[in-house]
Design a protein that fits this description.
The complex is a heterodimer of chains A (783) and B (225). With 783 residues, chain A is α+β, with helices and mostly antiparallel strands. Helices cover 49% and strands 19% of the residues of chain A. The radius of gyration of chain A is 34 Å and the shape is globular. Chain B has 225 residues and is α/β, with parallel strands linked by helices. Chain B has 7 helices and 10 strands. The radius of gyration of chain B is 18 Å and the shape is globular. The relative contact order of chain B is 0.20. The chains are: A alpha+beta (783), B alpha/beta (225). At the A-B interface, α1, α10 and α13 of A face α2 and α3 of B.
């Protein structure tokens, strides 16, 4: 029976090639999007699943309360906390401390920078990173031992059989040998922890005694919770452990489950979406696109079924029950869906590298994974039913009586339903197009934001130990290049964040308060480099030797100190006392998403990881080579990688969001237009006679095209009316996330509507033109 | 076999009721060959459709083989179509996407006949109508007369008791029409009850009983010998 059904279905599809091809393409695109999104979501949800103790692994983290009551998450904690945790919380079966870090390995004259971790010796017992060779768990217990990944082993020794060999780590001029005691398999990409080597934590602690101080931010804590323990209870027990150590530290400990690490984050003390955000965005967009594809299918099928109405009627007379007809039609839909699925699997394979590079997705695709097969089957069945059921019901409702009498089925039946589908289909691309333009506007706003200096005249390069060691001569050499105005070492690129400290005291401070300040460590040229807006006092100067112990503060910090006349007042930062010599304002230490923060500038060489170079004349490209020459002179080991301030990636990663919205909008619009043009071709052919009569009565081709276009315009306008408020709301919500944001640009709404309308009408007009330009005699004879 | 009692068919529009059939009483016994004649709009096709259970009477009772057909539910009606009745249409109504063979086979599939048996039955039909050579052709490749032959083959392959023909010769020229009519009377002589609607006086003569309808009323019912 099914074989017979299939035979007729295939013949029907072959006979109506345009219709079949349209349906096939739309479904394929829709399915491709759905599969990629599903793979993306699957990928996120399969993170860390390979750990044997997956469900019992938690990270111990702290929530810190801020100067203004804001709360934020602090992952690295003091190394000394482990004793307290072990003593107070027996439910924590095991605790391991992890410090991530990059080290420079050498072998002969080759050198490699690798990312790895320092970890307690129970690390490999708690987490399940399988050993390739080695074997017992104490590989990382002795100082100067190291466990490396197979990847790194191959890189260093060109073999994975390297137990007992020696890895040499080069730190500046100092070289140190580590005995390799184990090789682990490469860390899967779906692992939150990524590393290529493990060195005993004791080694790290030996070199960093400060890591044990109470307030230190040194180690990540991972705990294995014993089975069936109550997490709320544990949280209650650990909450005040840090406060108990030192009452002034306003930090509360809690357990963050490993299984949620990739999905959620904490902001303002509340759990917020992290990876989950993309899960939802990808999911929604793919669902919307698949829905458009299904609606296309329904629309075309219902239009097309007018031809098949008779067939259904005959079958009924021949004894077919309603369910048999529904079943046959669904079978047919499944055939199309299955073929589209095969095609979209090929598409997915081709597209995955592109998606991975564009959206940093890390997706892989194998049909061998049963979950993938399950997802494919689920997508196919739901798509088949979603797109096939309505036309099937419609078809099976065929009344044999009217069909067999030879009555022409009115194409108007169900036309309201079909047109509402069109409305929906166009709402999505319009919303996406406008939203994309709003993201772009904000992105440009942030790029072009007036930071007080010209953003295309500031070059940022990374600082290194070698450069730091030759600060003076490097600056002299750079400044001798014509055009270069200022060179400054700093830990703060404007609007890219800086070090935060809560060790700030001032007269009149409530001793129990621990407020946070953004502390900029820099040199004498920072103000020239970024054109600091000093409203009161002066910047550091060589002519005042006492300046090495002075501070500049911004107006926000002055407000926090409650100093009306801040100049000359004394404050202490991280235990260093000094006077305030200047007040500046309008300086963004954090991203434009956040407000102005209380900021303190001091002359200090600590953690200055960037060098800012401002130039006034000459071009970036011409200066780059000259700077490189100087750079290589002082830093022969690292590669020279300058960036123009304007081109720095923003914190908010708007590029990816706007790319995603752009891609989605393109596909949605393409599908909607494909569907619309298919429908237009159908309706034009069903109005052949009308067009013929109109033309014999003197209508021009253009007036016929207009006539056909007006019908669609009405429905497009309705979809714009629905789409605009949605886009407006989304845009507002999006912009509100940024403390400094561009006003909601009204032109994007006009542009979005115009673009969509033009494209939609063009796709319709091609079909209308074909119908309208036909010789009317031919059209009438055809009837 | 067929018994119609006080059958009315009407359509209600806003202010008036339009009658298509008025108070039809009709008995047709097994083995009869009946022709329904009358001018356009007299209700011939409606009457045929009611007998074939494609349409329902607005009032009245209809007994088929002593079963109250006007009380049958949808499922029973499907059973009725499968087992007791075959239809022939003026416009042939073959399924374009199916070959001759498949068109004839369709009712058997819905009837649930086993594949082996189906092959036999369809082969018999093809033999009988001399269409073996054409079995893999599509309807569009056949002449009108041949298409109607396929239509008849499809109608009788399920061995129905009743054959309903709505102007079976309407789309054919007279030679082909004659051929079809001869086939019908032959089928009738084999025991199938046939009711046909036609405008053609000559073709009406193939039947022994002619019912004339005028404006929804039976105006004459002649049985000839």
């Amino acid at each position: 029976m099914i074989r017979n059904f299939l035979k007729t279905s295939v013949r029907f599809l072959m006979r109506n090639k345009t219709y079949s091809l349209l349906n096939f393409l739309c479904l394929s695109f829709g399915l491709t999007c759905a599969i990629i999104a599903a793979l993306y979501i699957l990928n996120i949800f399969s993170y860390d699943k390979f750990h044997k103790n997956y469900d019992r692994l938690y990270q111990v983290e702290a929530i810190v309360t801020f100067f203004n009551g804001d709360r934020f998450l602090k992952e690295p904690l003091s190394a000394s906390l482990v004793g307290d945790l072990n003593a107070n919380v027996p439910e924590l079966e095991a605790i391991t401390r992890v410090v991530p870090g990059g080290l420079n390995f050498i072998n002969g004259d080759r050198s490699f920078t690798e990312q790895g971790i320092y970890a307690d010796d129970n690390f490999l017992n708690i987490f399940s990173f399988p050993m390739a060779s080695g074997g017992n768990s104490n590989e990382i217990s002795e100082l100067n031992t190291i466990v490396i990944s197979e990847r790194m082993a191959l890189k260093l020794f060109e073999t994975t059989d390297c137990i007992g060999k020696t890895a040499v780590i080069k730190d500046n001029e100092k070289q140190e040998a580590y005995k390799i005691t184990g090789v682990i398999r490469n860390v899967p990409s779906q692992s939150l922890l990524q590393f290529d080597f493990i060195i005993p934590l004791s080694k790290f602690l030996a070199g960093n005694p400060l890591a044990n101080e109470t307030g230190a931010s040194s180690c990540h804590y991972w705990a294995l919770v014993s089975e069936n323990s109550d997490i709320t209870k544990i949280n209650n027990k650990i909450r005040d452990l840090i406060k108990n150590q030192e009452t002034t530290l306003n930090q509360e400990l809690f357990l963050f489950p490993l299984r949620e690490k990739i999905l959620y984050n904490y902001a303002g003390g509340r759990r917020v979406w992290d990876g989950m955000q993309y899960v939802v965005i990808f999911g929604c967009i793919a669902f919307a696109i698949l829905l458009i594809a299904c609606f296309n299918f329904i629309n075309l099928a219902v239009a097309m079924n007018i031809k098949r109405y008779r067939e259904a009627g005959i079958k009924k007379v021949a004894g077919a029950s309603r369910s048999a007809i529904i079943f046959q039609y669904l079978t047919e839909t499944f055939v199309i869906t299955a073929i589209s699925l095969l095609f979209s699997i090929i598409l997915v394979r081709l597209l995955i590298p592109l998606v991975n590079s564009q959206f940093n997705a890390g997706i892989s695709f194998t049909i061998a994974d049963f979950r993938v097969v399950l997802i494919l089957a689920a997508i196919m069945i739901s798509t088949g039913i979603l797109s096939g059921l309505l036309p099937a019901l419609y078809l099976s409702s065929s009344n044999p009586l009217s069909v067999l009498k030879g009555e022409i089925v009115k194409s108007h039946s169900y036309s309201f339903f079909r047109q509402s589908l069109i409305v929906f289909q166009f709402v999505i691309p319009v919303v996406l197009i406008i939203f994309m333009m709003i993201i772009k506007t904000q992105d440009n706003y942030m790029r072009d934001y007036d930071m007080g200096f010209q953003n295309d005249k500031l070059i940022v390069i990374g600082n290194t130990r070698n450069l730091e060691a030759h600060e003076g001569s490097l600056k002299t050499d750079l400044l001798s290049i014509p055009g270069i105005e200022a060179v400054s070492f700093t830990n703060c690129i404007p609007a890219r964040g800086t070090t935060v400290s809560n060790e700030v005291t001032w007269t009149g401070k409530d001793a129990s308060e621990k407020l946070h300040f953004w502390c900029i460590n820099t040199d004498y040229q920072y103000n020239t480099a970024i054109n600091l807006n000093i409203t009161d006092g002066r910047y550091f100067s060589y002519s005042f030797p006492s300046d090495s112990a002075s501070f500049l503060i911004n107006d926000i910090a002055a407000g926090v100190f409650e100093y009306d006349e801040p100049l000359g007042k004394t404050i202490s930062v991280d235990g260093k006392e000094g006077t305030i010599i200047g007040v500046f304002k309008d300086f963004h230490s954090v991203d434009l998403a956040g407000p102005f923060a209380p900021t303190i500038i001091s002359l200090s060489p600590a953690s200055r990881n960037n060098i800012l170079i401002r130039f006034s004349s000459g071009t970036y490209s011409s200066l780059k080579d000259k700077i490189r020459d100087v750079y290589i002179r002082y830093e022969p080991e690292m590669s020279f990688a300058p960036t123009l301030y304007k081109d720095l990636p923003s914190y908010s990663n708007l590029d990816m969001s706007s790319d995603l919205a752009g891609t989605a909008c393109f596909i949605a619009l393409l599908l909607a237009c494909l569907g619309l043009s298919g429908l237009a071709s159908f309706s034009a052919s069903s109005r052949t006679k009308e067009i013929g009569i109109r033309k014999t009565n003197g209508a021009t081709t253009l007036s016929v095209i207009k006539l056909l276009g007006i019908g669609y315009t009405r429905w497009l306008i309705i979809s714009f009316i629905i789409a605009l408020p949605i886009a407006f709301l989304l845009g507002r919500i999006f912009l509100m996330r940024f403390y400094f944001h561009s006003p909601l640009p009204l032109w994007v709404f006009v542009a979005g509507v115009c673009i969509t309308y033009t494209i939609a009408l063009l796709s319709v007009s091609v079909q209308s033109w074909r119908a309208a330009s036909r010789n009317p005699v031919e059209a009438l004879r055809y009837e | 076999m067929i018994s119609l009692k006080n059958i009315y068919k009407y359509y209600d529009s806003k202010f008036q009721r339009t009658f298509v059939l008025k108070d039809i009483d009709l008995e047709i016994s097994e083995g009869e060959f009946v022709t329904i004649m009358g001018p356009s709009g007299a209700g011939k096709s409606t009457l045929l459709n009611i007998i074939g259970m494609l349409d329902e009477p607005s009032e009245g009772e209809y007994y088929f083989l002593d079963q109250p057909a006007h009380k049958l539910n949808e499922k029973k009606k499907v059973e009725f179509h499968r087992n007791f009745v075959g239809f022939i249409f003026q416009a042939f109504h073959l399924i374009d996407e199916m070959t001759v063979y498949e068109n004839i086979e369709t009712p058997l599939i819905y009837k649930g006949v086993k594949s082996k048996e189906r092959q036999g039955l369809v082969a018999d039909m093809l033999d009988r109508f001399n269409m073996v050579a054409k079995k893999d052709l599509f309807p569009a490749q056949l002449s009108g007369g041949q298409q109607q032959l396929v239509g008849i083959a499809r109608a009788i392959v399920g061995k129905p008791k009743l054959l309903l023909a709505d102007e079976p010769t309407g789309n054919l020229h007279s030679d082909q029409g004659k051929q079809i009519m001869e086939l019908l009377s032959q089928l009738n002589s084999e025991g199938i009850t046939i009711i046909q609607v036609t405008h053609n006086e000559e073709f009406a003569k193939y039947s022994r009983r002619i019912i004339r309808l005028t404006d929804g009323l039976i105006s004459s019912d002649n049985i000839s010998n």
